[in-house]
Amino acid sequence: MPDMKPVTKAVVPAAGLGTRFLPATKATPKEMLPIVDKPAIQYVVEEAVAAGLTDVLMITGRSKRSIEDHFDRAYELEEALRAKGDEERLASVRQSSELATIHYVRQGDPKGLGHAVYCARQHVGDEPFAVLLGDDMIDARDALLTRMIEVRRRYGGSVVALMEVEPDQVSAYGCAAIEPTDSEDTVRITDLVEKPPADQAPSRWIIIGRYVCDPAVFDVLEKTPPGRGGEIQLTDALLTLAHMPADQGGGVHGVLFRGRRYDTGNKLEYLRTVVQFASEREDLAPEFMPWLREFVNKHGS
C-alpha cells in the first residue's frame, strides 16, 4: 500500500547562474527578473500556496541574496509607504513576506537539478513533496499542481507534469514514454530520456518544471551518478523510481497538461510572457493594447 502522507512542502530550485540573461543576471538572479511588476519566482511561490503548500524551501546559490530579501519584511520601505498613505503599494510589498513560511539552503556546487533536490533531504524528511522550477510558470487559472497532488494521492509514487511539443522541440527537454491509465489526463511513465535527439525520442510528451516526489527519491539520488552534462539528473532518478515496486516508493505517473505555461528561462519566451501578462492586466491593457497594435502595424512585416 503506497504511503499516503499528505503533500505539504514545496521545493523551489533557484541556484542556476542565469547565463542566458547576462549581463542582467550578473548581480540579479534570473528568478527575480520581473513579469511586469512582480518577480517570476513570486508567481511560482503563489502557485505552491494555491495548492495548499505553505512550507517552501528555496535551493539557492551565491548572488541569490535578493531572493531572500524579497520574501522578507522591508520595514523601512513599509514605513515610508505607510507615511505616504500608499496602502495599495504597502499591501503589495507585504504580500510576498506573508505568502508562506520560506526556508533557504545553499546548493554550493552547481551539480544539476537532481543534486539541488537532494539538498532538500534534511528539510523534507520522509514526506512527499512538490518541486517547482523557479523559471517555469504555470498560469494561475490552471490548477496543475493541485491535480498532480490528487494523482499522487490515488496512485502513490511520484508524479511529473507532461506537455506535448513539436518533434523539433523534444531535444531540449526530458522526454517520456507513456502508457494510458483509467484517467484521461493521467499516464504511467515507462521510460524517461533526457534531451534525446528528435529521431530517438520515445514520444512528444516532455517533462515541464513541476514534480511531486516520493521521499524514496532521496535514496535514489544519493546513488545516481552524474549523467548528461556531468550533472546529477532528476530525470535519471525518476527513471529508477519508475521501475521500483510501489511498496518501496516506486512508480511514476504523468499528468498530461494542456494549459498555459510560461518558460521565463529564455529571452524570447520571457518577452512573450511579459507582453501577455501586461495585455491581461486591467490597469495596463486599456493603454498598452492600443499602443501594441499600433507598434505591430507600424513595424510588422
TrEMBL record:
Reactions catalysed according to its record: alpha-D-glucose 1-phosphate + UTP + H(+) = UDP-alpha-D-glucose + diphosphate
BP GO annotations: UDP-alpha-D-glucose metabolic process
Lineage: superkingdom: Bacteria
GO molecular function, one term: UTP:glucose-1-phosphate uridylyltransferase activity
E.C. numbers: 2.7.7.9
Coiled-coil annotated spans: none
CDD domains: UGPase_prokaryotic
Keyword vocabulary terms for this entry: Nucleotidyltransferase, Transferase
All copies of domain Nucleotidyl transferase, residue ranges: 9-242
Stored InterPro entries: GalU_uridylyltTrfase_bac/arc, NTP_transferase_dom, Nucleotide-diphossugar_trans
Name of one Pfam family that matches: NTP_transferase
Enzyme class, first EC level, given as a word: transferase
PANTHER family the record matches: UTP--GLUCOSE-1-PHOSPHATE URIDYLYLTRANSFERASE
Family membership noted in the UniProt record: Belongs to the UDPGP type 2 family.
Protein name per the record: UTP--glucose-1-phosphate uridylyltransferase
